[in-house]
Amino acid sequence: MQSFQTSRFLPTNTLKVQEPSALQTEATVAGQFARKLLQFLFYFHLLLITILAIFLTLRGVVLSQKHHFHPRRWYPPLLTSIASAGVFSFAWQWITYSCPSKAIKICFWLGPLSTCAVGIVFLLISSAACSAVGAIFIISAFIQTLYTCWVNPRFEYAAKILQVSLASPPAKTTFLVILSIVTSAVYACLLVSGIGGATAIGTKLDILFILVILLSLAWSMQVIKNILQVIVSRIKYIHFAYGADMDTPIVFRDTMNHLVGSVCVGSILVPIFGVTGASGRGISLIAGDTDEFLFSCAKCYSNVASTLEKHGNWWGFVQLAVYNKGFVQASVDTWEMFRQVGLETLINSDLTGAFCFFSGVMGGGVCTLVGGSWTLLVQKSYAAEVSIYAFFIGYFTCRIALAWPQACVSAYYVAYAQNPQSLRFDSTIPVRIQELQRYQT
Q1: Whole-Å CA distances, 144 to 83, 102, 246, 357
Q2: pTM exceeds cut of 0.85
Q3: Where are the domains of the chain?
Q4: How many other C-beta atoms can be found within 10 angstroms of the C-beta atom of residue 230?
Q5: What is the pLDDT of residues 280-320, one digit of tens each?
Protein backbone atom coordinates (compact mmCIF):
# COMPACT_ATOMS: atom_id res chain seq x y z
CA MET A 1 0.00 0.00 0.00
CA GLN A 2 1.08 3.53 -0.62
CA SER A 3 2.63 5.07 2.48
CA PHE A 4 0.68 7.83 4.19
CA GLN A 5 1.57 10.66 6.50
CA THR A 6 -0.53 12.75 8.84
CA SER A 7 -2.47 15.49 7.13
CA ARG A 8 -3.83 18.68 8.63
CA PHE A 9 -6.47 18.62 5.86
CA LEU A 10 -7.86 15.29 7.06
CA PRO A 11 -8.04 15.47 10.88
CA THR A 12 -7.03 12.11 12.33
CA ASN A 13 -8.85 12.65 15.62
CA THR A 14 -12.10 11.61 13.93
CA LEU A 15 -10.81 8.11 13.12
CA LYS A 16 -11.43 5.06 15.25
CA VAL A 17 -8.06 3.51 14.34
CA GLN A 18 -4.49 4.77 14.44
CA GLU A 19 -3.82 4.98 10.71
CA PRO A 20 -3.60 8.54 9.38
CA SER A 21 -6.27 9.05 6.75
CA ALA A 22 -4.47 10.61 3.81
CA LEU A 23 -1.71 12.80 2.48
CA GLN A 24 -2.45 16.40 1.70
CA THR A 25 -1.11 17.44 -1.66
CA GLU A 26 0.14 20.99 -1.46
CA ALA A 27 -1.06 22.96 -4.46
CA THR A 28 1.04 25.60 -6.15
CA VAL A 29 0.32 29.24 -5.47
CA ALA A 30 -1.27 29.49 -8.91
CA GLY A 31 -3.36 26.39 -8.24
CA GLN A 32 -4.56 27.68 -4.89
CA PHE A 33 -5.42 31.05 -6.43
CA ALA A 34 -7.37 29.37 -9.28
CA ARG A 35 -9.40 27.27 -6.84
CA LYS A 36 -10.20 30.26 -4.63
CA LEU A 37 -11.13 32.31 -7.69
CA LEU A 38 -13.51 29.63 -8.98
CA GLN A 39 -15.03 29.27 -5.53
CA PHE A 40 -15.59 33.02 -5.36
CA LEU A 41 -17.03 33.10 -8.89
CA PHE A 42 -19.45 30.30 -8.06
CA TYR A 43 -20.79 32.00 -4.94
CA PHE A 44 -20.86 35.39 -6.67
CA HIS A 45 -22.78 33.90 -9.59
CA LEU A 46 -25.31 32.45 -7.11
CA LEU A 47 -25.81 35.92 -5.66
CA LEU A 48 -26.27 37.51 -9.09
CA ILE A 49 -28.70 34.79 -10.27
CA THR A 50 -30.71 35.14 -7.06
CA ILE A 51 -30.98 38.90 -7.55
CA LEU A 52 -31.92 38.41 -11.21
CA ALA A 53 -34.58 35.81 -10.38
CA ILE A 54 -36.14 38.02 -7.70
CA PHE A 55 -36.14 41.02 -10.02
CA LEU A 56 -37.73 39.06 -12.88
CA THR A 57 -40.34 37.59 -10.53
CA LEU A 58 -41.39 40.97 -9.13
CA ARG A 59 -41.43 42.55 -12.57
CA GLY A 60 -43.53 39.69 -13.90
CA VAL A 61 -46.04 40.01 -11.08
CA VAL A 62 -46.46 43.72 -11.74
CA LEU A 63 -46.65 43.56 -15.54
CA SER A 64 -48.07 40.09 -16.24
CA GLN A 65 -51.64 41.34 -16.75
CA LYS A 66 -50.48 43.68 -19.51
CA HIS A 67 -48.87 40.79 -21.38
CA HIS A 68 -51.72 38.27 -20.92
CA PHE A 69 -49.60 35.88 -18.84
CA HIS A 70 -51.51 33.47 -16.57
CA PRO A 71 -49.38 32.67 -13.50
CA ARG A 72 -52.01 30.30 -12.08
CA ARG A 73 -51.74 28.13 -15.17
CA TRP A 74 -47.94 28.33 -15.49
CA TYR A 75 -46.57 27.98 -11.96
CA PRO A 76 -48.64 25.19 -10.29
CA PRO A 77 -47.76 22.42 -12.82
CA LEU A 78 -44.07 23.31 -12.71
CA LEU A 79 -43.88 23.66 -8.93
CA THR A 80 -45.73 20.36 -8.56
CA SER A 81 -43.22 18.68 -10.87
CA ILE A 82 -40.38 20.03 -8.68
CA ALA A 83 -42.03 18.48 -5.63
CA SER A 84 -42.45 15.24 -7.57
CA ALA A 85 -38.74 15.34 -8.42
CA GLY A 86 -37.82 15.53 -4.75
CA VAL A 87 -40.13 12.70 -3.71
CA PHE A 88 -39.13 10.44 -6.59
CA SER A 89 -35.41 11.10 -6.13
CA PHE A 90 -35.38 10.23 -2.46
CA ALA A 91 -37.56 7.16 -3.03
CA TRP A 92 -35.34 5.96 -5.88
CA GLN A 93 -32.21 6.45 -3.79
CA TRP A 94 -33.78 4.34 -1.04
CA ILE A 95 -34.75 1.60 -3.54
CA THR A 96 -31.18 1.58 -4.89
CA TYR A 97 -29.81 1.06 -1.39
CA SER A 98 -32.40 -1.51 -0.35
CA CYS A 99 -32.35 -3.69 -3.48
CA PRO A 100 -29.58 -2.86 -5.97
CA SER A 101 -30.42 -5.78 -8.26
CA LYS A 102 -34.03 -4.71 -8.77
CA ALA A 103 -32.99 -1.07 -9.09
CA ILE A 104 -30.58 -1.92 -11.92
CA LYS A 105 -33.21 -3.85 -13.87
CA ILE A 106 -35.99 -1.31 -13.31
CA CYS A 107 -33.72 1.57 -14.28
CA PHE A 108 -32.40 0.14 -17.54
CA TRP A 109 -35.76 -1.16 -18.74
CA LEU A 110 -38.02 1.67 -17.56
CA GLY A 111 -35.55 4.44 -18.46
CA PRO A 112 -36.21 4.05 -22.21
CA LEU A 113 -39.96 3.87 -21.55
CA SER A 114 -39.90 7.14 -19.61
CA THR A 115 -37.90 8.76 -22.41
CA CYS A 116 -40.47 7.54 -24.94
CA ALA A 117 -43.28 8.89 -22.75
CA VAL A 118 -41.61 12.31 -22.73
CA GLY A 119 -41.45 12.16 -26.54
CA ILE A 120 -45.15 11.39 -26.72
CA VAL A 121 -45.95 14.39 -24.51
CA PHE A 122 -44.06 16.65 -26.90
CA LEU A 123 -45.80 15.10 -29.91
CA LEU A 124 -49.18 15.83 -28.30
CA ILE A 125 -48.31 19.52 -28.10
CA SER A 126 -48.70 19.54 -31.90
CA SER A 127 -46.21 22.13 -33.02
CA ALA A 128 -43.39 21.68 -35.51
CA ALA A 129 -40.62 22.35 -32.98
CA CYS A 130 -42.21 20.12 -30.34
CA SER A 131 -42.73 17.35 -32.87
CA ALA A 132 -39.01 17.49 -33.67
CA VAL A 133 -38.14 17.37 -29.95
CA GLY A 134 -40.57 14.50 -29.46
CA ALA A 135 -38.99 12.58 -32.32
CA ILE A 136 -35.54 13.09 -30.77
CA PHE A 137 -36.77 11.69 -27.45
CA ILE A 138 -38.35 8.67 -29.12
CA ILE A 139 -35.17 7.95 -31.11
CA SER A 140 -33.19 8.33 -27.88
CA ALA A 141 -35.51 5.82 -26.22
CA PHE A 142 -34.82 3.35 -29.02
CA ILE A 143 -31.06 3.85 -28.64
CA GLN A 144 -31.35 3.37 -24.87
CA THR A 145 -33.25 0.13 -25.45
CA LEU A 146 -30.49 -1.17 -27.73
CA TYR A 147 -27.91 -0.19 -25.13
CA THR A 148 -29.88 -1.99 -22.42
CA CYS A 149 -29.96 -5.17 -24.49
CA TRP A 150 -26.22 -4.87 -25.12
CA VAL A 151 -25.24 -4.41 -21.45
CA ASN A 152 -27.78 -6.86 -20.04
CA PRO A 153 -25.02 -9.44 -19.26
CA ARG A 154 -23.36 -6.87 -16.99
CA PHE A 155 -26.40 -6.39 -14.75
CA GLU A 156 -25.39 -9.07 -12.25
CA TYR A 157 -21.95 -7.58 -11.63
CA ALA A 158 -23.34 -4.02 -11.54
CA ALA A 159 -25.78 -5.05 -8.82
CA LYS A 160 -23.04 -6.86 -6.91
CA ILE A 161 -20.64 -3.90 -6.92
CA LEU A 162 -23.45 -1.63 -5.75
CA GLN A 163 -24.32 -4.04 -2.96
CA VAL A 164 -20.78 -4.40 -1.58
CA SER A 165 -19.98 -0.68 -1.88
CA LEU A 166 -23.24 0.46 -0.27
CA ALA A 167 -22.77 -1.82 2.75
CA SER A 168 -22.22 -0.01 6.07
CA PRO A 169 -23.61 3.41 5.08
CA PRO A 170 -21.87 6.35 6.78
CA ALA A 171 -23.71 7.90 9.69
CA LYS A 172 -25.72 11.07 9.02
CA THR A 173 -25.36 10.82 5.23
CA THR A 174 -29.09 10.17 4.87
CA PHE A 175 -29.71 13.60 6.35
CA LEU A 176 -27.09 15.02 3.99
CA VAL A 177 -28.85 13.49 0.98
CA ILE A 178 -32.21 14.89 2.12
CA LEU A 179 -30.62 18.30 2.68
CA SER A 180 -29.10 18.23 -0.82
CA ILE A 181 -32.41 17.30 -2.42
CA VAL A 182 -34.31 19.97 -0.48
CA THR A 183 -31.66 22.58 -1.33
CA SER A 184 -31.85 21.73 -5.02
CA ALA A 185 -35.66 21.87 -4.94
CA VAL A 186 -35.72 25.26 -3.21
CA TYR A 187 -33.13 26.62 -5.62
CA ALA A 188 -35.11 25.26 -8.58
CA CYS A 189 -38.26 26.97 -7.27
CA LEU A 190 -36.38 30.27 -7.03
CA LEU A 191 -35.09 30.00 -10.60
CA VAL A 192 -38.49 28.85 -11.90
CA SER A 193 -40.07 31.95 -10.40
CA GLY A 194 -37.52 34.06 -12.28
CA ILE A 195 -38.13 32.15 -15.51
CA GLY A 196 -41.86 32.70 -15.06
CA GLY A 197 -41.31 36.42 -14.60
CA ALA A 198 -39.21 36.57 -17.79
CA THR A 199 -41.81 34.51 -19.67
CA ALA A 200 -44.51 36.94 -18.62
CA ILE A 201 -42.79 39.77 -20.51
CA GLY A 202 -41.22 37.73 -23.30
CA THR A 203 -38.81 40.21 -24.89
CA LYS A 204 -35.60 39.10 -26.62
CA LEU A 205 -33.67 40.17 -23.55
CA ASP A 206 -35.94 38.00 -21.39
CA ILE A 207 -35.14 35.00 -23.59
CA LEU A 208 -31.46 35.66 -22.89
CA PHE A 209 -32.24 35.86 -19.15
CA ILE A 210 -33.97 32.47 -19.34
CA LEU A 211 -30.96 30.89 -21.07
CA VAL A 212 -28.62 32.32 -18.43
CA ILE A 213 -30.85 30.99 -15.64
CA LEU A 214 -30.94 27.52 -17.21
CA LEU A 215 -27.15 27.45 -17.51
CA SER A 216 -26.89 28.51 -13.88
CA LEU A 217 -29.35 25.78 -12.92
CA ALA A 218 -27.29 23.12 -14.71
CA TRP A 219 -23.96 24.20 -13.22
CA SER A 220 -25.33 24.73 -9.71
CA MET A 221 -27.05 21.33 -9.67
CA GLN A 222 -23.84 19.71 -10.88
CA VAL A 223 -21.89 21.41 -8.10
CA ILE A 224 -24.40 20.31 -5.44
CA LYS A 225 -24.23 16.74 -6.75
CA ASN A 226 -20.46 16.69 -6.82
CA ILE A 227 -20.08 18.26 -3.37
CA LEU A 228 -22.23 15.43 -2.04
CA GLN A 229 -20.15 12.94 -4.02
CA VAL A 230 -16.88 14.34 -2.64
CA ILE A 231 -18.14 14.17 0.96
CA VAL A 232 -19.35 10.59 0.69
CA SER A 233 -16.29 9.52 -1.35
CA ARG A 234 -13.94 10.68 1.36
CA ILE A 235 -15.88 8.97 4.14
CA LYS A 236 -16.27 5.70 2.25
CA TYR A 237 -12.66 5.65 1.04
CA ILE A 238 -11.37 5.91 4.62
CA HIS A 239 -13.75 3.11 5.59
CA PHE A 240 -12.66 0.82 2.75
CA ALA A 241 -8.94 1.62 3.01
CA TYR A 242 -8.54 1.61 6.80
CA GLY A 243 -11.74 0.24 8.30
CA ALA A 244 -12.11 3.65 9.93
CA ASP A 245 -14.99 6.09 10.27
CA MET A 246 -14.98 9.85 9.85
CA ASP A 247 -17.48 12.32 11.23
CA THR A 248 -19.78 13.51 8.42
CA PRO A 249 -20.18 17.12 9.68
CA ILE A 250 -16.38 17.54 9.83
CA VAL A 251 -15.98 16.21 6.29
CA PHE A 252 -18.75 18.54 5.12
CA ARG A 253 -17.00 21.52 6.75
CA ASP A 254 -13.62 20.65 5.23
CA THR A 255 -15.17 20.16 1.80
CA MET A 256 -16.91 23.53 1.85
CA ASN A 257 -13.77 25.27 3.12
CA HIS A 258 -11.18 23.70 0.82
CA LEU A 259 -12.64 21.86 -2.15
CA VAL A 260 -15.49 23.86 -3.67
CA GLY A 261 -13.20 25.45 -6.28
CA SER A 262 -11.95 22.06 -7.49
CA VAL A 263 -15.49 20.71 -7.47
CA CYS A 264 -16.57 23.62 -9.69
CA VAL A 265 -13.87 22.67 -12.20
CA GLY A 266 -15.01 19.04 -12.17
CA SER A 267 -18.63 20.07 -12.57
CA ILE A 268 -17.73 21.75 -15.85
CA LEU A 269 -15.28 19.17 -17.22
CA VAL A 270 -16.97 15.87 -16.35
CA PRO A 271 -20.12 16.37 -18.49
CA ILE A 272 -18.10 17.66 -21.46
CA PHE A 273 -15.32 15.05 -21.32
CA GLY A 274 -17.78 12.30 -20.39
CA VAL A 275 -19.90 12.88 -23.50
CA THR A 276 -16.76 13.11 -25.62
CA GLY A 277 -15.39 9.87 -24.20
CA ALA A 278 -18.68 8.01 -24.66
CA SER A 279 -18.97 9.21 -28.25
CA GLY A 280 -15.38 8.17 -28.89
CA ARG A 281 -16.06 4.64 -27.63
CA GLY A 282 -19.23 4.47 -29.71
CA ILE A 283 -17.46 5.57 -32.89
CA SER A 284 -14.63 3.13 -32.23
CA LEU A 285 -17.13 0.32 -31.74
CA ILE A 286 -18.93 1.14 -34.99
CA ALA A 287 -15.71 1.53 -36.98
CA GLY A 288 -14.11 -1.66 -35.64
CA ASP A 289 -10.98 -2.54 -37.59
CA THR A 290 -12.22 -0.93 -40.81
CA ASP A 291 -9.64 1.11 -42.69
CA GLU A 292 -12.08 2.67 -45.16
CA PHE A 293 -11.97 6.42 -45.73
CA LEU A 294 -15.31 6.91 -43.93
CA PHE A 295 -13.74 5.64 -40.72
CA SER A 296 -10.23 7.02 -41.27
CA CYS A 297 -10.60 9.56 -38.44
CA ALA A 298 -12.43 7.23 -36.04
CA LYS A 299 -9.26 6.00 -34.34
CA CYS A 300 -7.87 9.53 -34.07
CA TYR A 301 -11.08 10.88 -32.55
CA SER A 302 -11.30 7.91 -30.18
CA ASN A 303 -7.75 8.54 -28.93
CA VAL A 304 -8.43 12.23 -28.38
CA ALA A 305 -11.69 11.45 -26.58
CA SER A 306 -9.96 8.87 -24.39
CA THR A 307 -7.23 11.35 -23.46
CA LEU A 308 -9.77 14.02 -22.54
CA GLU A 309 -11.76 11.57 -20.43
CA LYS A 310 -8.64 10.63 -18.46
CA HIS A 311 -8.19 14.31 -17.61
CA GLY A 312 -11.74 14.79 -16.36
CA ASN A 313 -13.72 11.83 -14.99
CA TRP A 314 -15.95 11.29 -11.99
CA TRP A 315 -13.54 8.73 -10.54
CA GLY A 316 -11.17 11.63 -9.87
CA PHE A 317 -13.49 13.04 -7.20
CA VAL A 318 -12.21 10.41 -4.76
CA GLN A 319 -8.57 11.55 -4.85
CA LEU A 320 -9.77 15.14 -4.93
CA ALA A 321 -11.67 14.46 -1.70
CA VAL A 322 -8.97 12.46 0.08
CA TYR A 323 -5.76 14.15 -1.03
CA ASN A 324 -6.98 17.71 -1.75
CA LYS A 325 -5.67 17.54 -5.32
CA GLY A 326 -6.76 19.66 -8.22
CA PHE A 327 -9.51 17.94 -10.16
CA VAL A 328 -7.55 17.35 -13.38
CA GLN A 329 -4.55 15.98 -11.50
CA ALA A 330 -6.80 13.75 -9.40
CA SER A 331 -8.46 12.38 -12.55
CA VAL A 332 -5.15 11.65 -14.28
CA ASP A 333 -3.63 10.01 -11.19
CA THR A 334 -6.70 7.86 -10.62
CA TRP A 335 -6.80 6.66 -14.21
CA GLU A 336 -3.06 5.86 -14.12
CA MET A 337 -3.55 3.89 -10.92
CA PHE A 338 -6.36 1.90 -12.54
CA ARG A 339 -4.10 1.15 -15.48
CA GLN A 340 -1.19 0.00 -13.30
CA VAL A 341 -3.28 -2.57 -11.44
CA GLY A 342 -5.16 -3.76 -14.53
CA LEU A 343 -8.55 -2.20 -13.75
CA GLU A 344 -8.86 -0.05 -16.88
CA THR A 345 -10.98 -2.55 -18.83
CA LEU A 346 -13.22 -3.16 -15.83
CA ILE A 347 -13.68 0.57 -15.26
CA ASN A 348 -14.58 1.14 -18.92
CA SER A 349 -17.26 -1.55 -18.71
CA ASP A 350 -18.67 -0.42 -15.35
CA LEU A 351 -22.38 0.46 -15.45
CA THR A 352 -22.56 2.80 -12.46
CA GLY A 353 -22.37 5.95 -14.57
CA ALA A 354 -24.95 4.62 -17.03
CA PHE A 355 -27.20 3.60 -14.13
CA CYS A 356 -27.09 7.13 -12.71
CA PHE A 357 -27.76 8.63 -16.15
CA PHE A 358 -30.74 6.35 -16.83
CA SER A 359 -32.05 7.10 -13.34
CA GLY A 360 -31.86 10.82 -14.14
CA VAL A 361 -33.83 10.19 -17.35
CA MET A 362 -36.47 8.41 -15.25
CA GLY A 363 -36.66 11.37 -12.86
CA GLY A 364 -36.92 13.79 -15.76
CA GLY A 365 -39.61 11.64 -17.35
CA VAL A 366 -41.71 11.55 -14.18
CA CYS A 367 -41.54 15.33 -13.81
CA THR A 368 -42.38 15.90 -17.48
CA LEU A 369 -45.39 13.62 -17.25
CA VAL A 370 -46.59 15.50 -14.16
CA GLY A 371 -45.96 19.06 -15.34
CA GLY A 372 -46.38 18.58 -19.10
CA SER A 373 -49.62 16.59 -18.90
CA TRP A 374 -51.14 19.05 -16.44
CA THR A 375 -50.22 22.03 -18.61
CA LEU A 376 -51.62 20.31 -21.72
CA LEU A 377 -54.98 20.23 -19.97
CA VAL A 378 -55.07 23.76 -18.55
CA GLN A 379 -52.99 25.89 -20.99
CA LYS A 380 -51.59 24.07 -24.01
CA SER A 381 -49.54 27.09 -25.11
CA TYR A 382 -47.35 26.72 -21.99
CA ALA A 383 -46.92 22.94 -22.29
CA ALA A 384 -43.65 22.93 -24.28
CA GLU A 385 -41.64 25.19 -22.00
CA VAL A 386 -43.05 23.69 -18.80
CA SER A 387 -42.21 20.18 -20.03
CA ILE A 388 -38.63 21.16 -20.87
CA TYR A 389 -38.03 22.89 -17.53
CA ALA A 390 -39.63 19.99 -15.64
CA PHE A 391 -37.45 17.43 -17.42
CA PHE A 392 -34.19 19.19 -16.64
CA ILE A 393 -35.12 19.82 -13.00
CA GLY A 394 -36.20 16.20 -12.54
CA TYR A 395 -33.02 14.92 -14.20
CA PHE A 396 -30.65 17.00 -12.07
CA THR A 397 -32.52 16.37 -8.82
CA CYS A 398 -32.42 12.62 -9.36
CA ARG A 399 -28.71 12.77 -10.21
CA ILE A 400 -28.12 14.56 -6.89
CA ALA A 401 -29.88 11.73 -5.03
CA LEU A 402 -27.79 9.14 -6.90
CA ALA A 403 -24.51 10.89 -6.03
CA TRP A 404 -24.43 8.86 -2.80
CA PRO A 405 -24.26 5.37 -4.39
CA GLN A 406 -22.03 6.67 -7.19
CA ALA A 407 -19.58 8.00 -4.58
CA CYS A 408 -19.60 4.68 -2.72
CA VAL A 409 -18.76 2.71 -5.88
CA SER A 410 -15.97 5.08 -6.92
CA ALA A 411 -14.45 5.01 -3.42
CA TYR A 412 -14.57 1.20 -3.45
CA TYR A 413 -12.70 0.99 -6.77
CA VAL A 414 -10.04 3.54 -5.78
CA ALA A 415 -9.42 1.94 -2.38
CA TYR A 416 -9.17 -1.47 -4.04
CA ALA A 417 -6.75 -0.17 -6.70
CA GLN A 418 -4.44 1.22 -4.02
CA ASN A 419 -4.32 -2.09 -2.14
CA PRO A 420 -5.82 -5.05 -4.05
CA GLN A 421 -4.48 -7.50 -1.45
CA SER A 422 -6.40 -5.96 1.43
CA LEU A 423 -8.54 -8.42 3.37
CA ARG A 424 -11.30 -5.78 3.54
CA PHE A 425 -12.27 -6.60 -0.06
CA ASP A 426 -14.07 -9.74 -1.17
CA SER A 427 -13.70 -11.54 -4.50
CA THR A 428 -16.15 -9.33 -6.43
CA ILE A 429 -13.56 -7.44 -8.49
CA PRO A 430 -11.02 -10.29 -9.01
CA VAL A 431 -13.74 -12.66 -10.21
CA ARG A 432 -15.07 -10.07 -12.63
CA ILE A 433 -11.57 -9.40 -14.00
CA GLN A 434 -11.15 -13.12 -14.65
CA GLU A 435 -14.49 -13.21 -16.47
CA LEU A 436 -13.50 -10.28 -18.70
CA GLN A 437 -10.17 -11.93 -19.48
CA ARG A 438 -11.96 -15.13 -20.54
CA TYR A 439 -14.26 -13.12 -22.83
CA GLN A 440 -11.25 -11.47 -24.48
CA THR A 441 -9.46 -14.74 -25.26
Answers
A1: 27, 18, 39, 11
A2: yes
A3: 28-257+342-440
A4: 28
A5: 777 776 666 555 545 567 678 777 877 888 888 889 999 99
